[in-house]
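Notebook, p. 212. Picked up where the previous page left off. The plan for this session was modest: take the two constructs that came back from the sequencing core last week, fold each one, and keep the raw output in the notebook itself so nobody has to go hunting through shared drives later. Recording the first one now, exactly as returned: residue sequence, then the structure token string.
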Amino acid sequence: MHMNENCNPMYGKVDEILDLLTKSKSLHLLMELDRAEKPLRFTQIKRRVQASSTTVSRRLKELEEFGLIARDQHADKAPSSVYVLTPEGKKLSPVMQSLYEWAENWSMSPAMAANS
């Protein structure tokens, strides 16, 4: 392949979503929202993914900007937000599950096993 040939633009889109999903706790956060039976509050998410408030806050904002999660304001006793997967986020569910299952069954390469 020559360097001046154009790359399929879809690769750029895949790279962009992989950049987001590989950030600390992004995939874990999406999987927790996917497996939850109801919307989750910030503190519930933080506890489930075992991350700092700063990390959870950043990931939620980024995932919301990408349209994968939605934040809903509730004005009950104390105003708070809950988070859910959007329809676009739900489309990632089988991909996340497949990746999780693959990782669970993956046997490391000899070089990686030697370093662990």
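Okay, moving on. Second construct, recorded in the same format:
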Amino acid sequence: MARRVNADEPPINALKPERLHSPQARALGIELVSLEPQVVLKIPYREDLVGNPETGVIAGGVVTTLLDTTCGWATAVALKQLTSIATLDLRIDYMRPSAPGKPIYATADCYKLTHSIAFLRALAYDVDPSDPVAAAQATFMLDSNAGRREGANLGPPARPAKGDA
């Protein structure tokens, strides 16, 4: 966990942006646009992200990853102290196809924090934020590692003790 340098600075600023991106988000090229006054992330248009070459529209799964990642960032920004987080639920309403050749932006707002859950709303848009491509409602679990070190769940499986077969 990163240490805060300035008590008035949000804890998210103590981390490097690439630290908060999943490998999938990095592979898709998701970029941080701003943290204030609202979290905004962007995915540049790339032909390899297109779902249907005839329409040139970015695939829905890419939009899902963008919204999920943006909600994660909004959760991290809302926290007083950084902790591990994990998506519990992500509901997305797709309203229209994105404009071919245009990047897609996403904004998210963490409107409620409890001791264990963050509640968020997010929008994805291309040209005009008032005409969204998709809207999302999400919940994130806080302290998802339950105090274990990061990546502890990625080690080899525990071997059963002798006689536990």
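Notes on construct two before I forget. Strands lie at 31-34, 39-43, 50-52, 57-58, 85-94, 104-113, 117-125, 134-142.
Flagging for discussion at group meeting.
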